[in-house]
Request: fold
Amino acid sequence: MMRLPAFRYLVPKSLAEATRMIADAGPDGMLVSGGTDLYPNMKRLQFDPRILVGLRHLRELHGMSGDPQRGMRIGAATPLSQIGLHPAIRARYRALATAAASVATPQIRRMGTIGGNLCVDTRCNYYNQSFEWRRAIGFCMKRDGEGCLVAPSSPRCVAASSSDTAPAVIALGALVVLTGPDGERTVPVTALYRDDGIAYLAKRPDEIVTAVLLPPADGLRSTYWKLRRRGSFDFPILGVAAAARLGRDGTCAEARIVLGAVSSHPVDATEASEVLRGRKLTPELIEEAAVSAYRPAKPLDNTDLTLAYRKRMARVFVSRALRELADLS
Reply:
């Protein structure tokens, strides 16, 4: 049985106190809310924080407010299960509702939070193993080693982004609120990520993700398609979030397609989105956009199933997602 290493758990009384605690802890500290990814990683000795700053009890990080007409605010500690079942989000921000409802199992979705899923660690077959397994084959650069076991010539870690909700909220044009010792700032969700399997988050270590801001829905249609071996529990090995604003005649005024699990960060398929703009979503146009989205999908042999299959499925899933938005499925 794998056991948690020793650590000190701090319970801040406010968000301001939490920011001070994590800043004071420095590299020895980590934030925890649901802990559904952090605690297993600690058991495998991938993380070894001496201090954990708990966020789950902070009321200012919970709940959803607003409406699709004005935009909605989702607290970072809101459980994924609540987001997936929320009537307004299911009706007007379908990509997010579907993505949240596809994470892991019902039990984990009741514990896991939107903030935690946005910040979830990148994954790799050579990294997400027990300490003994990793020691037996030789450690990788993501933890305890020097080189990449997937791409030995790569100067950086290529572990894959494993968040379901990140592609969805990026496709929806959402913002994320970050709070640190110097105050609060709001940035597009896409600015939260770097294309680096180790330093995959662009936020400062002493900043806390406190909320996700969804813009007014304003007729935007969206969906999320997820590829995984099993129909539940598994992390994505491909995620496709698509959003489009269509006119009465089916002409696309605006579109955005975002791919997950094909790189160390969510990939914005901008070329495919531009193919759709100002044109009617016919089956032929959808296939053209799917081919364009296929090009930036560059999965590596570091997650489940073969990389060639996962790359081909990027084209298939983009096509299926767009056909759903155009009511052609």
Q: What stands out?
A: Residues 307-325 form the longest helix (19 residues). The mean pLDDT is 96. The two ends are 47 Å apart (CA to CA).
